[in-house]
Structure formats: C-alpha cells, structure tokens
Amino acid sequence: MEFNETGRVLVKDLSPHDFEELYVLRLALEPVAARLAAPALHENSSRLDNNIKATSKAPTLIRLTHLDLDFHEIILEASGNGRLLKLWHSLRSELELWLGRLNRSKQLHTRGTREETVGSHEELVQAFTTKSPVECERMMRQHIVGWHEWLPTTEVLE
Fold first, then answer.
1. How far is it, in rounded angstroms, from Cα 67 to Cα 79?
2. Of the residues 13, 78, 99, 106, which has the fewest C-beta atoms closer than 10 A?
3. How far is CA 158 from CA 4, 74, 105, 149, 152, in A?
4. What pTM value is reported for the model?
5. Phi/psi-derived region of residue 111, left when phi > 0, alpha when psi is between -120 and 50, beta in every other case
6. What is the count of structural domains for the chain?
C-alpha cells in the first residue's frame, strides 16, 4: 500500500523493477533458509505435507497464492533464524502481489499452476527428507530461479 499526497491509501502496483527486486530478495533469503531448515524438516515435515494437501485442493488462485507463500514461510520458520523470518514478514504483502500476479500470468499460459506448485513443493519436501542441507539449498534456489521467466517486462505492463 502507498499513500497519495492527500493521505489516501492506494494499493501499490508493482513495476517490473519491483518484481525483479523481490525476486532477488527471495533468492537471497530462501535458499539459506532451506539449508538451515533442512535438519528440522528432515525430522518432521508434517506442516509442509499438510500445506501441500491443502494446496492441491485450492479452489482459487488467491488461495493457491496464500498457501504457496505459507509453504515458504514454514521453511523460514523451521530455519530457526528469527532475522530471516522477520525479513520475510516485512516482504510478505508485496510477495502476495508478486506471486499472485505471476500465478495469474502462468495460469493464462499453462492452466496448470496448482499442479505445478504442488509438484515442485513435493520435490522440495522429498529433498528435506532425503537430501543434505546443501542440496536442499540448491533445490530451493532452482525453485525460485524457475520463476524468472514469468517476471513481467516493461512491455507486458504497458
């Protein structure tokens, strides 16, 4: 949200530059969180499993977007790093706009946004339960990088 010159609240419209900045921040935060969270999630991934079940039944893209971000937040919580989680919380509202926009764009082109989200999250949970923390970090980075092709350009927004 932003305030105009009269003090009225406006919903912020993200520019291509905003999308790129949020993408870079996700790349900085989430792979590290995945590495730190790996031992805890290796022991207990039930919250992630429950999230995936709910995501597979998400009736709308809005609900899918919230569940997707919840999945990532569970990982940040499991990292045990309060400052990473605090940074995530400070970005959450903009990430909802970011991911919601990307999900809508992806849905228009592939019609498989929910299935792709569930599949990629299942792969991450599999990594947490079977792979090393370093491999979990690599897979999370790959997961985030996969969104780069869906970032809007100036031409798309005009």
1. 19
2. 13
3. 22, 36, 15, 18, 10
4. 0.87
5. left
6. 1
Number of Cβ atoms within 10 Å of the Cβ of 135: 15
CATH, residue 34: 1.20.120.530
- Structural domain including 112 reads 16-151
- Name the one residue in this structure whose structure tokens are 């999630």: 41
55 inside domain: yes
Considering all CA atoms of the chain, what is the largest pairwise distance in Å, rounded to the nearest integer?
55
Does the residue 40 lie in any domain?
Answer: yes
Give mean pLDDT, residues 86-111: 86
Residues in the chain: 158
In a domain, 143, yes or no: yes
* Structural domain includes residue 77: yes
What does each C-alpha distance from 73 to 6, 47, 48, 81 come to in angstroms? 35, 11, 10, 12
Query: What does the pLDDT read at residue 108?
Result: 78
Does the pLDDT value for residue 22 go beyond 50? Answer: yes
Q: How far apart are CA 121 and CA 64, in angstroms?
A: 12
